[in-house]
Design brief:
By secondary structure, the protein is mostly helical. The protein has one domain. It is built from nine helices and two strands. The protein has a two-stranded antiparallel ribbon with strand order 1-2. A hairpin with an 8-residue loop joins β1 and β2. α1 runs antiparallel to α4, α2 crosses α3 and α2 crosses α6.
């Protein structure tokens, strides 16, 4: 978790609103805020966007222009989830516990960005891990939270059955 915090503190993003580079958690919040604004601007009035279209908007306007500042962080989260999932020593219950531990380290802006990132072609099977470990469960950004069931299934926002 220390590595995650260290990499989070190194994240950089230049918000479209101010043009002044942000770093660390402030950069992730600024990127999430930009994503919400840009999606609202790009969304057609006459229809809903598909998950792929949401991912494309995010990739084109947030991730690609800032890949060097955001990419390492998202690759680390992907790697952590993949390692938890592929570990042969961990029981399914332990895998869930480790997934919960990771999820507990993430703020709502991070979860919003990770959820959008999981919709992109470049994210490979990140969406599977987001579903399996219910990473979007505690997302608070209402406009993104409302789309999570469509993108990842309604169960990712629910408690696991006992």
């Amino acid at each position: 978790m220390k590595l995650l915090r260290d990499v989070r503190n190194e994240v950089r993003y230049v918000p479209t609103t101010t043009g002044k580079e942000q770093s660390g958690p402030a950069a992730l919040k600024a990127a999430a805020d930009d994503a919400v604004i840009i999606i609202r601007q790009k969304k057609p009035l006459d229809r809903e966007l598909t998950p792929v279209e949401y991912g494309n908007i995010y990739a084109e306007h947030i991730h690609k222009p800032s890949e060097d500042g955001l990419g390492p962080y998202f690759r680390l989260i992907y790697t952590i989830l993949k390692r938890i999932d592929s570990d042969k020593e961990l029981t399914p219950e332990e895998k869930v516990q480790y997934g919960n531990l990771l999820r507990g380290q993430l703020g709502s802006p991070e979860v919003a960005l990770i959820s959008l990132n999981g919709l992109t072609k470049a994210s490979k099977d990140l969406s599977m891990y987001l579903r399996r470990y219910r990473v979007p469960k505690y997302i608070a950004i209402s406009s993104i939270r409302a789309k999570i069931p469509e993108w990842y299934g309604a169960d990712v926002l629910e408690d696991r059955p006992d």
